[in-house]
Specification:
The complex is a heterodimer of chains A (364) and B (371).
Chain A (H helix, E strand, L loop, with lengths): L1 E4 L11 E7 L2 E8 L7 H12 L1 H5 L7 H15 L5 H29 L4 H21 L8 E2 L2 E2 L7 H24 L2 H7 L7 H6 L5 H5 L6 H4 L25 H24 L19 E9 L2 E9 L5 E7 L1 H12 L5 H11 L3 H5 L1
Antiparallel strand pairs in A: 1-2, 2-3, 4-5, 6-7, 7-8
Chain B lengths: L2 H38 L20 H11 L10 H18 L8 E2 L8 E2 L8 H9 L2 H11 L3 H32 L4 H7 L12 H4 L1 H14 L11 H4 L9 H26 L12 H4 L1 E4 L6 E4 L1 H27 L7 H28 L1
Helix pairs in contact in B: 1-11, 1-13, 2-11, 3-4, 3-5, 3-11, 5-6, 6-9, 6-14, 9-14, 11-13
Classes of the chains: A alpha+beta (364), B mainly alpha (371).
């Protein structure tokens, strides 16, 4: 049976399409079709210039809009040879790590929803609401932030915001434990995810998977630690690698639990960053018209969905000559065809959810 | 008037007595489900529908929903089997309404002005429990036809899942009830309930749950699977196959499936109450009092409160209704607590876990009863 899952199927959270060949319930093949959300963002960059492109980067990954902001800013700064003030770097770390937690909320919450438990999702949506409030304090926006600017960040801390963030973090740790008790250790949930769609190290490296998906398969690689950028070398954090408390390396449960662990690490990171926030400028002096010298550069950051990188070529004018964005979701989509044979329809849903694919990030 | 005329009136009155609360409760359950899920998820739930300034805690929502469903366009997919597509919702709703006619909602009661005792049960069949299984297994036709007639692959998958699941769990359901039948020695529903009023030990009534605890658990799990409710909601697993067999339904036809789902909750709750929670029985109250009337002593006084037979009958009806509603709420709660099984896990749970346990339960019960 040839089944079209998508582009408006409830499990695809956005517009993804899978052409699924099944024999009853068992899949013989699932081919992802990308391109439903292609907005030509890379081409837009060539028309709107360096500063003008910043709000567009938010739309690359709306679940965690701080990361594409930071990636773009880093790429342009590298080309300009711009030194970002230390305070700005710390503010960036705080903003992005908050975003990482919020993005993992969506990832693990919608995963629980795809497995059929609706309640945990809303528990995390409730927390994300507080995150949105914090973001509103930080930059005035709740979803697409445009906070990280070239040379720094758009504005300094709202007075008292650090206390608000710390209070939220204190509340958050018990909530993650509660979430574990509510759903992560539920026997049905474990049965549904353990040993499902096991991806080996060769598979994930071969298909270019990044971030938590890569680390869940036992590849110990995190850009924040291994290709350090920003002020991450000054902060102490662990990189969770391998399987979770149940199951094997590389199964859906490992990918799920990697995100839970990362949330805990991000909380520690945030505490350190807020405690060590230095005084100073929040933005370097940036010329009004940004005209980088001709050349090219490549900036990589560890986004919530893994490595996100910008490849930027400048020809010395006010407009970039070429921009390419490489995102984790796109490569994650590529492994679905490889991993799908033999899965059941319900497993395919679990696999898609565990890869944490965000539709606009696939196509840009 | 001839006596058959009176009989007809009696049956019609009883049908109204069953159907009206059943459908009202079904409507209220839609409200309850939303409020309960809201409670679980730290939300407010429905609170906007209003008549003037009155919102009545969202109680107007079921009415508003029904009105909306009536006025919605009824879409029949192209190349669907028109007749079967129309027939399926009826086939899904009817069995659950029929089942309730053999569940006793009160004891035999003496009503002033009527010479003979009236059984508070629409039909007291000899083979009551068997009738229930026979009718409830018809519900699978509605589901299977809905999936087949919709001309949609997701519907078809849902129908396949539903029929396989319902057939497998019917066996467990039947075997779990066999224990009760063996203990109480009857399949007539009125007798099954009446026997549960006999004292067991220590003042406890011999309710089914006390004499058949394993049977109760098996029956409950199998019945949840029969109802296709979470965690066994694979036939309509939203994130997998959109909405399963009712993907292609809209308007009031969809509404009938929806009502059927909530009526079934009450039916299951009614069955659980009748088989395992003593039906209309109130601990300390003899069902016979509904015939004779009884005077209860008021504590700390020398007075007694004389309640006539129909009064006791009413009390026991209320007790039955209360038990059913408590059962409904518990069953609803389960939905918002668990994730969904996978299709093959549902099957292996049914055949490899529950079926052997049910057989064991029958064996042990039989051995004890014969001894």
């Amino acid at each position: 049976m040839l089944l079209n899952m998508g582009p408006h199927h409830p499990a695809t959270h956005g517009v993804l399409n899978f052409v699924v060949e099944t024999d009853g319930e068992v899949l013989s093949r699932a081919v992802p079709e990308v391109g439903y959300l292609h907005r030509g963002i890379e081409k837009i960059a060539e028309k709107v210039g360096y500063t003008g492109f910043m709000p567009y980067t938010d739309r690359i990954d709306y679940c965690a809009a701080m990361f594409p902001n930071q990636g773009w800013a880093m790429a342009v700064e590298r080309l300009l040879g711009l030194q970002v003030p230390r305070r700005a770097e710390y503010l960036r770390v705080i903003a992005t790590e908050l975003c990482r937690i919020a993005s993992h909320f969506i990832a693990v919450g919608s995963m629980a929803m795809d497995i059929g438990a609706y309640t945990p999702f809303l528990f995390l949506i409730r927390e994300r609401e507080t995150f949105n409030d914090l973001m509103e304090y930080l930059c005035g926006a709740r979803l697409t932030f445009n906070y990280v600017w070239i040379g720094g960040v758009s504005r300094d801390f709202h007075p008292g915001l650090d206390k608000k963030i710390c209070a939220w973090l204190d509340k958050l740790e018990p909530i993650i434990d509660e979430f574990d008790r509510l759903i992560s250790f539920n026997p049905i949930y474990i049965d549904r995810l353990v040993n499902v769609a096991v991806l080996s190290r060769q598979d994930v490296i071969g298909h270019g998977l990044v971030g938590p998906n890569l680390r869940a398969s036992g590849v110990d690689f995190d850009l924040r630690r291994d290709v350090p950028y920003s002020v991450y070398p000054e902060l102490k954090f662990k990189v969770p690698v391998g399987r979770g408390p149940f199951g094997v390396e590389g199964d859906c449960y490992a990918r799920y639990y990697a995100r839970i662990e990362e949330m805990r690490e991000s909380i520690q990171l945030l505490r350190q960053a807020i405690a060590g926030l230095p005084e100073g400028e929040h933005r370097a002096r940036v010329p009004r018209k940004i005209k980088p010298p001709p050349g090219e550069c490549y900036a990589r950051i560890e986004s919530a969905r893994g490595e996100m990188s910008y490849y930027l070529i400048s020809d010395g004018t006010e407009l970039p000559y070429r921009v390419h964005v490489r995102t984790g979701s796109f490569s994650a989509m590529s492994i679905i065809e490889h991993a799908s044979p033999g899965l059941m329809i319900a497993d395919l849903v679990a696999l898609i959810a565990s890869l944490d694919v965000v539709a606009p990030e696939v196509d840009r | 008037m001839p006596s058959w005329w009176w009989l007809l009136i009696e049956v019609l009155v009883k049908v109204v007595l069953v159907l009206v609360p059943l459908l009202t409760v079904a409507a209220l359950l839609t409200w309850d489900e939303r409020k309960q899920s809201a409670l679980m998820q730290d939300r407010l739930g429905p609170n906007r529908a209003n008549i003037g300034p009155f919102t009545l805690w969202g109680l107007i929502h079921p009415i508003a929903d029904t009105l909306k469903l009536f006025f919605k366009e009824d879409i029949v997919p192209d190349r669907a089997d028109k007749l079967l597509h129309a027939l399926a919702p009826i086939l899904a709703l009817a069995p659950s309404l029929i089942v309730y006619c053999v569940i006793p909602f009160g004891p035999a009661v003496q009503i002033p002005g009527i010479g003979r005792p009236i059984a508070l049960q629409v039909a007291d069949l000899d083979a009551g429990l068997l009738f229930i299984f026979a009718i409830s297994s018809l519900a699978v036709f509605g589901v299977a036809l809905a999936g087949w007639a919709s001309n949609n692959k997701f519907s078809l998958l849902g129908a396949l899942r539903a029929s396989a699941q319902m057939f497998s769990y019917e066996i467990v359901l039947g075997l779990a009830a066999v224990g009760v039948i063996v203990v109480f020695g009857s399949v007539r529903m009125s007798e099954l309930v009446a026997r549960q009023a006999t004292p067991l030990w220590g003042g406890l009534p011999s309710w089914g749950i006390l004499v058949q605890p394993l049977g109760f658990v098996l029956f409950m799990v199998a019945a949840l699977a029969e109802l296709k409710r979470s965690p066994f909601d694979v036939p309509e697993g939203e994130s997998e196959i959109v909405a399963g067999f009712w993907t292609e339904y809209s308007g009031m036809r969809w509404g009938m499936f929806y009502v059927a789902e909530f009526v079934e909750v009450s039916v299951l709750s009614g069955l659980l109450v009748a088989l395992f929670f003593g039906g209309y029985h109130i601990p300390g109250v003899d069902p016979g009092w509904a015939l004779t009337g009884h005077t209860v002593a008021i504590p700390f006084t020398s007075h007694g409160l004389a309640i006539a037979g129909w009064g006791w009958g009413l009390l026991m009806m209320l007790a039955f209704g209360l038990k059913v509603i408590v059962g409904d709420v518990v069953l609803q709660q389960i939905r918002w607590t668990f994730p969904r099984f996978r299709y093959d896990q549902v099957m292996s749970l049914g055949w490899k876990m529950l079926l052997p346990l049910a057989l064991l339960n029958v064996l042990v019960t039989g051995a004890i009863v014969i001894r």
